[in-house]
Each structure stands twice: as C-alpha cells, then as structure tokens.
C-alpha cells in the first residue's frame, strides 16, 4: 500500500511525539495536526492495516519497526528541507509552511540531491556568502527597475 501525504503527516508526527515524550496519544496527535480526534482514530485504523502502527493494551498505539523506519525518514526529510530553505535565505516565517507544502511531493532522489547541496553549503562559508552576494545583486536590480 503506497502512503498518501496525509498518512505521511501522521507517521511523521507520531514518530516525533514518541521521540519527544515516549508515547503518542490520539489527543496529542489531534492537537498537533489540528484535526478532530475521530479523524485520528480513522487514520490509526488505516495505518494499522498498513502495518505502520500496532495497538498495545494500556500503552495505546506504537509504531511497528516499519512505521519507525519510515517515521525516521520523514522527520529527517522535514528537517533537511527546513535546513535547505534556511540556507538559501527563505524568510523564517515562510519556512514551516513551505516545507509542509513540498515535502510530500519530492522523490527520495530529489531529497538526497538536496542533502548533497546542503552539505555543499555547509562545507564552505564562502559558498553561502557567494549566494548571498547574488541575492543582494538581484534585489538591487529589482529595486532599480521599480
Ligand atoms: Mn512535515
């Protein structure tokens, strides 16, 4: 069963919650994703069918090893894209929503290549400065034209 963007959002959030607090309750997920608890329950059933989560008496539900593996990649993908947008100078206030908007629509190939690019910029301050210089020149051009 291929995952949908919505399933990915849930698995990503559940992984992050378990990482943070040791568990993920329906109410925590509903709050984090700003959805109704009944939607969470529905999705949990779907994720259970896909073998991403498993219900455990008393502990609520947990991620299976398949769910954990995917969750880890999804959290990594989100963080990498935030890092990428930060490095290229995107306004901080746009970053979260931009990442939420693009993360489900890139191939893992594209994610890995962006990872290379982030590494490229991290390995040399001069590279970031050169990019900033281009951006400043472009901004100056725009101001001249207006
Ligand atoms: Mn995300």
Automatic annotation (TrEMBL):
Which parts of the chain span the membrane according to its record?
Answer: none
Alphabetical GO biological process terms: intracellular manganese ion homeostasis
Q: How is its activity regulated?
A: DNA binding is strongly activated by Mn(2+).
Q: Which GO terms describe its molecular function?
A: DNA binding; DNA-binding transcription factor activity; manganese ion binding; protein dimerization activity
User: Which residues of this UniProt protein bind Mn(2+) 2?
Assistant: 12, 78, 100, 103
**Subcellular localization, as worded in the UniProt entry:** Cytoplasm
Q: Which residues form the HTH dtxR-type domain?
A: 1-64
Keyword Cell cycle attributed:
no
Q: Name one Pfam family in it.
A: Fe_dep_repr_C
Write out the residues that bind Mn(2+) 1.
Answer: 9, 100, 103-104
State the NCBIfam families in the record.
PRK03902.1 (NF003025)
Q: How does it assemble?
A: Homodimer.
Summarizing the function annotation, the protein's role is: Central regulator of manganese homeostasis.
Protein name (record): HTH-type transcriptional regulator MntR
The species this protein belongs to is Exobacillus caeni
